[in-house]
Amino acid sequence: MKILTAEFIRSCVQPEQFPSGGVPEIAFVGRSNVGKSSLINSLLQRRGLAKVSRTPGKTRAVNVFSVVTGDTQLSRFLVVDLPGYGYAKVSKSLRAQWGPLIEAYLSGREELKIVVLLVESRVPAAQDRETIEWLLSIGRRPIVVATKVDKLKPSERVAGLRRLRVELGLDDRLPVIAYSSTTGEGRDRLWVSLKEQTRI
């Protein structure tokens, strides 16, 4: 996939701040520190586009990026980086603000065409499974991406990904894409899946 332009356009903390104009949107969701920002930078081949932090819970708004590619099938769209869930040190009041904002976006946003759910390849969490079940219940079939697979030893890879599928309760309709933002593994496969879902 050839990326022609990729740029940050806004941070949203209220639904009325979401972009207008009907441009298709691809949302990235996952728990805190799962590697969303790193994956977005890797996918779009832009260093520092999405701000990466070692501090979980750093993304505290819905961050929106405009992307133009050289592929006619998926030529212009918005990437939406949602705040991570499950970080205990974030205040209760802030979590209370995030919940309704994210739920309203994922359940009612007409422009949202694809949800990419990131899970940690080594340590899936109960909240990941709950998120998958909730997305399916509202008619959103996510693309599931297992991040940080470069941290798995080759001997651990097959068994680790199989265990992840079982713990997340995934059937064959929801394949898991193994991804490494460090090596670029999984980038081409994720682009293929994104283009396939735009045809659904």
Which keywords apply here?
200 residues, alpha/beta, Rossmann fold, seven-stranded mixed sheet, 7 strands, 32% helix, 24% strand, globular
Describe the structure.
There is one protein chain. This protein is an alpha/beta fold and 200 residues long. Helices cover 32% and strands 24% of the residues. The protein is built from 5 helices and 7 strands. The radius of gyration is 16 Å and the shape is globular.
Order of helices and strands: EEHEEHEHEHEH
- The neighbouring-strand order within the major sheet is 1-3-4-2-5-6-7
**CATH architecture assignment:** 3-Layer(aba) Sandwich
Biggest sheet features: 7 strands, mixed
Helical fraction? 25-40%
Name the average pLDDT.
85
> What is the overall shape?
globular
What's the CATH class label?
Answer: Alpha Beta
- Count the beta strands: 7
State Rg: 16 Å
Using the coordinates shown, work out and report the CATH topology. Rossmann fold
- Please count the helical segments: 5
What is this structure, in a nutshell?
The protein is an alpha/beta fold and 200 residues long. The protein has helices spanning 36-44, 92-108, 126-137, 154-168, 187-198, and strands at residues 3-12, 25-30, 62-69, 76-81, 112-120, 143-147, 176-178.
Q: What's the helix and strand layout?
A:
Blueprint: E1 3-12, E2 25-30, H1 36-44, E3 62-69, E4 76-81, H2 92-108, E5 112-120, H3 126-137, E6 143-147, H4 154-168, E7 176-178, H5 187-198
Parallel strand pairs: 2-4, 2-5, 5-6, 6-7
Antiparallel strand pairs: 1-3, 3-4
